[in-house]
Amino acid sequence: MMTLTRSLWRTWHQGRRLYGAYRARYLGICAVLLLPLTTPVALATEAQYPVDPTSQLIMAPGWELVRGQCNACHTSAIIAQNPGNRKVWRETLQWMIDTQGLWQLSDTWEPVLDYLVANYGEKQVDMSRFRRMPLRPEQQPPMPQAEE
Asked: Coil, strand or helix: which one is 55?
């Protein structure tokens, strides 16, 4: 009887140690997986802003400035259709200044660029929606030239 009791005790004790090891491993994996979700950066990027029903712009900080600057000449739908990084947005705005009659942005350059990059920055191509990657610039047909 004593041997049976010791044997059961030993088995129970080993099982408990094994359970503790698996539990610790499980908690460690969960902590590693959940850590990125709790960092301030992750919380900041997941902030959801409402969309302005009139302009369809994301109502993040700076949206009113962008609405005033951009919607004076074109619809804001163009903004959402042409995402880009800071360099792309800077070149686009400079092109508008040089050729399309956009006024000098002077001290509003950086706030406008900050808003555009933060809310309409580069995005990965969602291959579940498209059947192939977009053409590279060298693969695209030439832009039509204006007749003189």
From this structure: coil
